[in-house]
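User: Structure tokens for this complex, please. No commentary.
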Amino acid sequence: MIFLPKGVVKKEVGDPDTISRDYSEARKIVEEVSHFQFHQGTFDNDKFNKENCQILEAGRTVQCKVTGASGTILPKFNNSGTISDAGTQYTIPQSDHATNTHNVAPDSNLFEIPYNKGFTEIDDTSLSWVSDYPELVHIIFSFQYVRSGNVDYIREENALPYGADWGDAMWSKIRKNRLQVAVNVDGVNVVGSGPNGVSTSDSYRGTSYTARSLATSINTIQLLPAGSHTIKGMAALAPSASIVDNDGNVSRSTSYNRNSIMFNLAGINTDPFASPTRLSGFAIGENCCIATRNMLVIRYARGKLLE
Amino acid sequence: MSIDRPKSGELLTQDSIVKMHEEVKNAGNNIFEDNLGRSSIGPQHLRTTPELDFLPSSNTSFVMDFNETTLGSTTFIDDMISVPAAASQYGGLNYQNQAGLNTEVSTNWKSILTIGPATTKYEPDLEHDFSIIISFDSRVMNFTNSSKVAQDTIDQDGMIWYAVEVTLDKITSSTTTSTQVEQGSVVGCHLIDSTNWIKNDGSANSYALLSRKGGIEQSVSNTIRVPIQRLVTGGIATKYKIKLIKLYAAYTTCHVVSRTATSHTKSALIGNTTLRYFVLKTPKIS
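Assistant:
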């Protein structure tokens, strides 16, 4: 669309119809303008509204029930991710720890991360809004991750009813709970917004977080166009795997089914009709929870009157 | 919308020309509200590179206040989270209500950083709220004994917990002060490693203590928001002022055997701790 004002030429009689045409065409162009009429990098920052900002917040506070003599009190989940021991009371030692205990229930707002089901939305972290202008959006996602200790998990080899400790010779072989976290903006996980990654080799190393707890804030700044937006906190328990050396002495990893280490399958080899025994201890992925979480979105409007 | 123009044969005046000019100008200046399709201006049109020669004008119209403080040295956290004295009592982070958390933190935990008092007063009006954004970062360095010697963690499996306490002055004809530990600020981490580590090949009697460099080196950070909304007391709109923002930390063994009723033997060394806040003026969220 091109605007060509004709004006009044020399010695022409000024006629309202002719003159007003210039203005009518100008207005028509203004009303039909779209983003195609703007060059890249057209607008300087100081042309835009910096008067104020908007803050959105979602979150949930969770009591981890910690005392001076107890760690976090976590619920026990079954294989489908629901609490299997609802109402169970767990022990917090009293000050005379040797004889008396204080039984408490886990906080009902703990969010268990599904094992090997990909990224799922963390409850109470979703925020949606509709913006009239393009916005610079500062997203801050704070969360507490906590799980049971390694010694409480069933170890892989020999189905022994204990896991391994830090520095354990078996450490490289036990199945690890591998946390992945991301901030999701309009359906896409923002690259770099949390401990996650895609393996570029046979090893899973460097793609997740395996320590027992984590309390951190993820910050990301996005420039979003006008329109409707949704932001969520996402978490995943990546498939657990052990790294083994094959005959060629090349490291590779294999992923495991959660059920495969909940039962002692050794007897099945000799008696296919034998009932497998449920091992004591946690299977992989059990008791891995997001506790207190907080999603903050600070929106700075970037569009204002063009002057 | 068409231009309101003079009819053919009518006398052209300055006013009729100015009127048409104004109508075009008004349409152009309302371009983003009424005439410009949604998403018409996208990120590709905005300059995101620093404009060193043409700095944006001051943004003090909505960033009302900011402060930051950093721990100048390392600190040993040997203050213990409390334990319940009886089965009927609450204790530590198993608290009954806000008052219980306030008492737990202010009484038993170690205050490691303090900011305040601020001088700026915030007065939410009918159109604006305020939000205090508070964040902290800290590094858990070593797991130690009471002599501050690095220890292994295999039996004691400790945790460090943090909490932020906010004290606000509410000013009308007089000043009242409220203090509260923000529940969302309470986060912690296990002492997942140490300067020593134990080798365990699976049998109960084969522990071997080995030297290890690097310590725990676990980082903790958290960000919370404290909203401030309009409050009218006795016909006077309340002004708010930050009196103190304090960062606390405390330790727990997580393991009953290593904890006696009146004393404990473990602690942790933390460093690189920073506490900061900034206050934003925002449109009122209905």
